[in-house]
Give the backbone structure.
Amino acid sequence: MDHKPKGMGLGIALGAALGVTLGILAGHIALWLGIGVAIGMAIGSTLRRTQNACPKCAALHQKHEERLLTE
């Protein structure tokens, strides 16, 4: 099962909301929306879920990585 990170989407959504808000206040929605999305992408790339270090899971992931490298 593939779990995709949601940090980037959350960052873009928050940046877009901030950009629209600043755009309404400044009177230039298109400009500030673009700036907000860019800031949101930067923030979203730094957001990462912390992974619990389970010894069984770590061993399983190590086996998968080794198998992929040998194929």
Summary: The chain has a mean pLDDT of 81. The chain has one domain: 7-70. The CA atoms of residues 8 and 44 lie 4 Å apart.
